[in-house]
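Minutes, project check-in
Item: structure for the 619-residue chain
Input as provided by the requester:
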Amino acid sequence: MSAPGRSGTVRLTAAQALVRWLAALRVEGGERLFGGVWAIFGHGNVAGIGEALYAHRGELPTYRAHNEQAMAHAAIAYAKAHMRRRMMACTTSIGPGATNMVTAAALAHVNRLPVLLLPGDVFVSRTPDPVLQQVEAFHDGGISANDCFRPVSRYFDRIVHPEQLLTALPRALHVLTDAALCGPVTLAMPQDVQTMAYDWPEAFFAPPAVRFAAPPPIDEELADAAAALRRSRRPLIVAGGGTLYGLATDALRRFAETHGAPVAETQGGKGSLAWDHPLQAGAIGVTGSPAANALAREADCVLAIGTRLQDFTTGSHALFPQARLVSLNVNGFDALKWHGTMLRADARRGLEALSAALGGWRSDEGWRVRATDEAARWRADLARVTGVRDVALPCDGEVIGAVQRSAADSPRDDIVVCAAGTLPAELHKLWRTSAPGGYHVEYGYSCMGYEIAGGIGVKMARPDREVVVTVGDGSYLMMNSEIATSLMLGLKLTIVVLDNRGFGCINRLQQACGGAPFNNLLADCVQGPDGPPAIDFAAHARSLGANAENVRSIPELEAALARARAAKRTTVVCIETDPRRTIEEGGWWWEVAVPEVSGRAEVRDARTRYDEGRRKQQP
């Protein structure tokens, strides 16, 4: 219950006001903006924010995880699955609980995803300093561990008086919901300030509905972009995550069909165009398809939509240096990259305006035929490269094929969730999805440990969809505790663990750079007298409460996946995979610096190849 304040005000603590304000936020249409709050309580938040959350648990649910980084990953995945139109908050204690979220904040920052982080902080009064878990800076009394969040937050504020929330919260909301600024917000909450009372204006708790703005293009930039495309005969569209977040998939399809422009997709943009559309060339870049990369090498203009143009997309700027670049992006920082013609706008409104400005312009007929032929050949080849079943030790791509086939009778597309290692590379090339959001891979930060926690966030956002988490043994060992959270919350996941006995992806990269196998696969690490551990992942998952089994072949995997789909609770299926093999088709050069001097001939040869690759880069 809130205490009465002065006329037109209500007396609440800072924590009570914060939670009440979050619970009051609605998007246009009436749905709550915040789907809930993840909380692991400690001495920096249990008494203040914890009490406030309890009072509002009906309209703003509180969820408990087993790891602070994981709960923030779940919140981020929830926002991504909602195309950034709903989100969650996370609160922690003062010390390690807070800093455990720093990695997740960096992930959200890189991927332009909204999450509200509310770490507890040390006493503003400083009377009991140093308190348990306090980091003391000898040179600055105003610093706490929470200052680690500053470089990985789009907006950071430390609330040292309740009244500051009157300005800090609207600013935070603006960053969380603005398409160009979108990213993590950190409000550090000192524990004494959380409990301080203030007479709040009652109007503060009746905020207007949140509207997600879709800015139109600037006329002059639109004219420049249209002129650049009109000069093109062989255009290629690169669809990034902004295409999905801008709800621009229908506009993209119409643009591609109207102007005869093939479409390639980044990791973030996969699902922008149905996998079987004739103009869908597939994944682009280092993890790209043969079709998309062949077209990129011959394109004379690349229309990049909502992409950060990171090195995996551009082949470290060696994939399409010959092409003019037109960057349609709501964020000017991204639109300016690599000397492109800038078109700052919402993806949907930008595509519609650009199409109107182009009128009847179309690409060359020969280019359209070439593009559709390349795309059709790759689609036909997918069944071959993923269809291997009779193999002693499958590779990741063959496992992906089995997972995809297991969805054949599913009434709706699966959502596949993944993050780091070889799996995102193979999924980018091989996974087929017809619906936006069917592909949920965090690869901007390539964060091991995101997978299972991210699967929880996706399932919370899309409870009607089958969520399949694919995870390597290395990532599983880094963060598997949220299997227990999925069971506690009744959020059923199917988790496929691919066990290649170590960090197979980096082992291959190490050798590609001339290095000897070292410190990646378990067999190549420093060991005690008993050798590397024999890990039974199914037994471990069962100990957390999940259904689980180990399988040894693709046919056994297919049968296990059928059982997993029929199950009512989280199921883990583990299969051993080959750490050496990958699907050879596709791919592109990626700049990984190789030593100029080495006593190993393999390193010197790798340096020669590295120098050859650098000569292809755009200056």
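Outcome recorded: The chain has a mean pLDDT of 95.
No further action items on this chain.
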